[in-house]
Every structure is written in C-alpha cells, then in structure tokens.
Amino acid sequence: MKTLVNSTLSEGTKSIIRSSELYQFFYNKFHSNKLATGTKRLDLCANEIAIYLLQAGKGKYVLRDKVCLEIGSGWLLTHSLVFYLLGAKKIYATDVEPLLQPENIFKAVSSSQSWHILDSLSTFEDREILRLRLNKLLSFKKFSVEVLQELGIEYIAPIDLSQKMPGQEKVDFIFSKSVLEHVPVDDITPLLENLVSSLSEDGFMFHLIHLLDHNNFQRPFDFLTYQREAYSRELQTRWGNRVRRSEWKQIFSNLKDLDHKFIFEWSCNDRELPEKIDSSIQYIDEEDLRISHIGVVGELKSLLEAKY
Ligand SMILES: C[S@@+](CC[C@H](N)C(=O)[O-])C[C@H]1O[C@@H](n2cnc3c(N)ncnc32)[C@H](O)[C@@H]1O
Fold first, then answer.
1. Cα-only R_g, the chain
2. DSSP classification of residue 251
3. Which of 70, 90, 96, 237, CA to CA, is 20 to 30 A from 162?
C-alpha cells in the first residue's frame, strides 16, 4: 500500500488517497499488524519505558496507583499496557486520530518474552505483582475497548490536546513517544501549556521527540529545505514539524510553571545535510541541525529545583 502511494503520484494526489476512509482502514490494519511483532511488542516497549524512567532518575513504585496520560498512543497502546503493568490506577490513552486496532494487541503481547518484560520492569515494581498483572494480560485472547477499560485504560480519540484536555483530573505522569514532532508548530505551546496545567504537584512528564524527516530516512534533513509557505500543517504532521533542538529548548524554557531537563540527545552524523537550509528554520549551528532525538523530562517548578 505504501509503495502505491509512494510512487510517482503528485503530493496532492497522494494526500487525497491517504485521506480516503478505505485507504486508512487498510493501512491501519496492515501497519498495526506489522508493529505488533516489531517495534510495538510489549517486551520491547517495557524495555524502552524502563530505560526512560531510569534516565529520568525514577525508581521503585514510580507509577503504582498513579494517573497516567499518553499522548499520541497510536495503533496498539503498548506503552499504556506497560503503565498498567507498573500499577497505574488510571491511564488515559489519547490520540488526535482514532488509530487504535485492538485486534492486534494480542499479537503484541503474545509475541513477547515474559521474562524480558519482568526483567525490564522489576526495578519499578515487585516482580511477583508484575507477574500477576502480566498473566492477566496474557489471559485475554481478544482485546477490545472494554477489555482495556478493565485494565484501567481509557482510550480517547479523536482529541486535540492543544484545544482541550480529557477532563479536570490531575495527572501524575504524561508520556509521549515520537509524537511532539508531529504537532504543527502553532499548536505546540498551547498543547504543552495544557499538559503543564494538568500535571499533579509531584507529577512528571517524559517526551521522546524524533527530529528527523519522517518522509525520507535516507536523506533525513531534506525537509529543512522547504519554504515555510510550502510546508503545510499536513506536512508538519506527516513528515515532522522541523523544530530543531535549540528551538525545543526555547519552547520548554518559555513554559513558566515547568522545569525541564533534556536527559538525552542523540545525533545523526552519517547522513548528508542539504546545501541550503530554508531561512524559516531556527537553528544555531550544524550540531543543532543534526540532533535526531531528544528525551525531555518536565516537572512543576519548585519540585525539580530541589532535585537536580
Ligand atoms: C509515529 S506515531 C507514534 C505512536 C506511538 N506513540 C508509538 O510510539 O507507537 C505518531 C502518533 O502521534 C499522533 N499525533 C499526530 N499529531 C498529533 C497531535 N497534534 N496531537 C497528538 N497526537 C498526534 C498520531 O496520531 C500517532 O498516533
């Protein structure tokens, strides 16, 4: 399917095909099926969450009895399942598009190695309790929105969190992976402000932001050549909003009630930069342009100051 749309068709035609309900129906089935035995396997996601929590300096019982919010939860909600394993009492899994394909969640759970999940998460929860929760997950042969609710996971989509939050409840942990780079530039600050205002006093947020061109991983900086006027909100969502590391720093620094820390930064140094970067791209130097991923942790101001 992807090959069909990636062919020589013009961007306008591709966009029309992509937005058709039929295309989205088949794409979402196909893509979620692939993810279930690939990057969204439960053991791989458990390992990812463990690494992020360790890098954020968190320890035992960090999510036990907590309220969590995942932004851009995608097709399988595997990260939200990890929050269930870690004992979260309520998890709001939200998305701007209703992408969830519950019939493929079983595959993401059953294709995983149980020991790997337990090993990854034992730093943050008692192993025997983890095992009981994992056994419960494995007992479901068919997932649905109702089954997810039984696990404390409420799926809310479509919802645009730059416009409104799902409710008034304070949230202890906000998580996103590969989502903030899809948010159109104009919506980033309103979205982050809404997140900050929903954070509980001792809550925290973690975002992994992937800064490369999602249209072309072979030439992952080519999207930086487009003029601002030619780079629509749709392209910002599909290929990435092109915000570089230094601009993210500024955006997070401008959130008056939040203290943040970049807990990791990775670079992409083995791919060519285009000769000309469009003047609308805000950056400091080549190093800034080449940052490919950042991990950001945020907490309400007074608490973070005391800790770091
Ligand atoms: C690359 S997928 C990542 C999905 C999931 N977080 C994961 O790790 O598999 C990007 C996700 O961001 C969501 N997204 C795109 N624009 C968004 C926006 N403005 N607000 C919230 N989510 C958005 C998409 O719907 C999709 O679920």
1. 19
2. H
3. 90
Return the best residue to mutate from 96, 174, 193 for the ligand 1 pocket (most ligand atoms within 8 A of CB): 96
In a domain, 76, yes or no: yes
Q: Are 211 and 181 in contact (CB under 8 A)?
A: yes
- pTM check: above 0.85: yes
212 is in which domain, residue-wise? 39-307
Q: What is the pLDDT of residues 187-199, one digit of tens each?
A: 999 999 999 999 9
Give the ligand 1 atom nearest the CA of 179.
12
Residue 16 lies in a domain: no
Q: What's the domain count of the chain?
A: 1
pLDDT in tens, 86-135: 999 999 999 999 999 999 999 999 999 999 999 999 999 999 999 999 99
Distance of alpha carbon 79 from alpha carbon 59, whole angstroms: 18
In 10 A of CB 18, how many CB atoms?
14
* The one-letter amino acid at 259: D
